[in-house]
Amino acid sequence: MVKKTDLVDTLIHQGQRKRLVDELRKKGIQSPAVLQAMGTVPRQWFFPKDFEHFIYRDAAFPIDHGQTISQPYTVAYQTELLAIKSGDKVLEIGTGSGYQAAILLAMGVQVYSVEYILPLLQKASGIFKALGAEIQLFHGDGTLGLPSFAPFDAIVVTAGAPAVPETYVKQLAIGGKLVIPVGDNTEDLKMMRITKISETQTKSEVLQDCKFVPLKGSHGWK
Ligand code: SAH
Predict the structure, then answer these.
(1) Averaged pLDDT for residues 152-169
(2) 70 lines ligand 1 (CB under 6 A)
(3) Where does 4-210 sit in CATH, by number?
(4) Is the CB of 161 under 6 A from ligand 1?
(5) Which of 74, 101, 119, 121 sits most deeply, having the most CB atoms within 10 A of its CB?
(6) Where are the domains of the chain?
(7) Which three-class secondary structure state does DSSP give residue 61?
(8) pLDDT value for 1
(9) Is 70 annotated as catalytic?
(10) Is the CB of 60 under 6 A from ligand 1?
(11) Which of 7, 73, 76 is nearest to 45 (CA)?
């Protein structure tokens, strides 16, 4: 069980986080709210123990069960693309370490997050419980979305999909945005942003190259 006292944030961490935020700004992240969230959330709380030197590097890092904690730049980039505002309802697919979910919480949105691998979900859940954070976590196949909680103002998928699952577009509010890495090789994906313009119309943007672990499940990789 994670205790509140396990969740430390030293002056060294804070200094390293400030430098990371400068690096993200140089790499093109502009949204003040996103930069502030990246500067607020202690990444070490979601990072594997005993790898102190890697916490504030701008790189993905392995967590348990063959998964990864996303690269800070990727977290900031996806969050910026969502164009969310405080109070929005946001669905994340792939809770993993919980870091992206914590960044969303710091943006002041209502967070719903789905994870396939139960022990990862339980670990993240323990951290949020210790923090007293209000977050809705679900275990299951995130490619189905969360129909009973739709519509969402934004949906962010943090694993690489072979194609855009229709379920997500259905579960977006009008004006809502889906941000999802897509491609037939998880080493060579394109970030896509789909905006729901009306019940029948969407706008699609194909953005930067990226890498993610595979999105599994019925509308993902088998
Ligand atoms: N957002 C995470 C990134 C984790 S990596 C973070 O900030 O650390 C992607 C995660 O997606 C993995 O934990 C993986 O188990 C999960 N995943 C893959 N397919 C999934 C699916 N169909 N439903 C829910 N989670 C899935």
Answers:
(1) 97
(2) yes
(3) 3.40.50.150
(4) no
(5) 101
(6) 4-210
(7) strand
(8) 84
(9) yes
(10) no
(11) 7
Lowest-pLDDT choice from 3-7, 57-61, 66-70, 136-140: 3-7
Q: Which tokens hold the place of 183?
A: 């491609």
Q: Determine the pLDDT at residue 152.
A: 98
Q: Which of 158, 182, 218 to mutate to test the pocket of ligand 1 (most atoms within 8 A of CB)?
A: 158
Q: Which contacts qualify for 147-153: CB closer than 8 Å, 24 or more apart?
A: 147/171, 149/89, 149/91, 149/112, 151/89, 151/176, 152/89, 152/90, 152/91, 152/112, 152/176, 153/84, 153/88, 153/89, 153/90, 153/109, 153/177
Is cis: bond before 42, omega within 30 of 0?
no
Ligand 1 atom with the shortest distance to the CA of 46: 8
Pocket test for ligand 1, best of 44, 67, 111 (most atoms within 8 A of CB): 67
* Cβ of 165 less than 6 Å from ligand 1: no
Share of the chain above pLDDT 70, in %: 100
Q: Which of 59-63, 175-179, 183-187, 203-207 bottoms out in mean pLDDT, i.e. has the lowest?
A: 183-187
